[in-house]
Amino acid sequence: MSGLVVVSAGLGQPSSTRLLTDRLAAAASDALRPGTAVETVELRDHAHAMVDAALTGFASGALRAALDAVADADGLIAVTPVFNASYSGLFKTFFDVVEPGALEGTPVLLGATGGTARHSLAIDYAMRPLFAYLRATAVPTAVYAASEDWGGAGGGLAERVARAGAELAALVEARPAAAAQDPYDDPVPFEELLAGGGR
Questions:
Q1: Taking the complete model, does pTM exceed 0.70, yes or no?
Q2: Looking at the domain assignment, is residue 15 inside a domain?
Q3: Is position 199 within any domain?
Q4: Per-residue pLDDT tens for 68-99?
Q5: How many domains, the chain?
Q6: CATH of the domain at 118
Q7: Is residue 76 part of a domain?
Q8: What's the half-sphere exposure (Cβ side, CA atoms, 13 Å) at 186?
Q9: Boundaries of each NADPH-dependent FMN reductase-like domain copy (predicted)?
Q10: Cβ(44)–Cβ(10) under 8 Å?
């Protein structure tokens, strides 16, 4: 089991986005088997490399390691602040440079933060379509945290976090283990290559 990878698109340090990210990761980790690894990717640390990768089509260094971790994850938690009623540009840029097919079938827990609960639908009309396009499997419960949710009487944030974490854990546990595949296991026959019939 590769474990969970957590992607946080918060801009500040500290940020409410990272706070929600950590709570979601703790809830999912508690619901999974003991010892499940959790790796956090702070997108602000890769901002320049992400723009370079978007321009060149090539990721290297720490960004490459982060992309590989996301592709190999058993489960993913993705959290963004809401700007202009959608996910942040930092968040979108990262998933723009994720390789096609890398998230296919990966269980994903979606989270977002914002100043007001009026933007909570951004998860359903912006984030879910993005991950549907990437062919990931989003858990039913997504978690949006507005400013008032951090005061203690904010609409059951703890309950929503626990429910979403349990749903992610259930999908991760139910997912069949991916078999390592060698690209040379099924080569195209030489005669077929000569005939121009490559697959």
A1: yes
A2: yes
A3: no
A4: 999 999 999 999 999 888 999 999 999 999 99
A5: 1
A6: 3.40.50.360
A7: yes
A8: 3
A9: 5-150
A10: yes
